[in-house]
Amino acid sequence: MDSTSSILIASNSAADAELVRNLLLKTCSRMTLSVQPEHHVSDFDTHLPDVLVLAFSDLEETRAYYQGLCRSSQVAASHRYRTVLLCRKEDLKAAYDLCRQEEFDDYVLFWPMSFDATRLSISVLLAVRAVQAFRQSQVKSPVRPLVKPAIKSASAPELKIDPSLAHMKLKLEPPARSTIMLIDDEIFQHNLVRFLLTGLNCDFIFAFSGTEAIAKLQYVRPSLILMDVLMPGMSGLDLTRHLKSTPVGMDIPIVMVTGNSDKDVVEKSLQAGASDFLVKPFSQDMFLRKLQRFLR
Q1: How far apart are CA 25 and CA 184, in angstroms?
Q2: Which of 34, 139, 244, 251 gives 20 to 30 Å between its CA and that of 91?
Q3: pLDDT tens-digit profile of 65-93?
């Protein structure tokens, strides 16, 4: 593993965090323990880990820690890192579902202590490689001119363009497709939006929670975000405020989707940074008209 790679081990138990550190000594030399709740966010912002190992024995405590980190950190949304969730045997199915929904990147059975210790090491190693591969892919190549400069030649005839064709423009490439991200905890809304926008020249990204959305926004930049107001954990208003305070989300238009038409809800949505709002239920025509303001 690259000696510059770093791992942050977050836990509510100093003993568990130290155990994880000892198991990973052969995998990585740069490790930091974060076991004090009041320092969880500052530990992450200071060390900017490549891999965040979540060593909380209770799955709900893991989610509470991560939601708090995503809500309070100034860099978590823009920093590229991977998460490895440690879990109990009875939480395996829930951990699988959270990773399948991309709220976390990977999980390892850690409690009881009859687990395969090498599984943890290889999971962290693969996470580091994934981060390194992504960063290498983002390295910009030297900019090359799209058209070679013309060389003036005495023997070359002067190119004349018919004035009657001056209004015509060459279409060099098809227009880029727009990407819409929907953040809603209900699968029905995901399917409904996909149905309403059938035929629209766009791609879709779906997230079931604020933490899942923040994780996905590390790797994609949607043209528009549709945000449910009421979600468990981090609400749509809290997530909007967070995204608008970070470089990743400050320029992405957000349309709030709510079943509450109260003036207070609308005002809070706009104050949080939303560009517009939709009140459910809405027709397909109204939905399309609203979105056309923000899509290419």
Answers
A1: 40
A2: 34
A3: 998 998 898 888 888 899 999 999 899 99
Q: Which among 106, 99, 113, 102 has a CA at the least distance from the CA of 57?
A: 113
Q: What is the pLDDT of residues 152-182, one digit of tens each?
A: 444 444 444 445 444 444 443 444 689 999 9
Amino acid at 217: L
Residue 149 is classified by DSSP as P
For residue 164, the one-letter residue type is S
**Are 61 and 12 a contacting pair, CB within 8 Å?**
yes
Question: Of 60, 17, 57, which Cα lies nearest the Cα of 40?
Answer: 17
Contacts of 160 (CB under 8 A, 6+ apart): none
pLDDT score of 224 more than 60: yes
In whole angstroms, what is the distance from residue 10 CA to residue 47 CA?
A: 12
Of residues 113 and 29, the one with the higher pLDDT is: 29
Neighbours of 187 (CB within 10 A): 10
Block residue for tokens 């190992």: 53
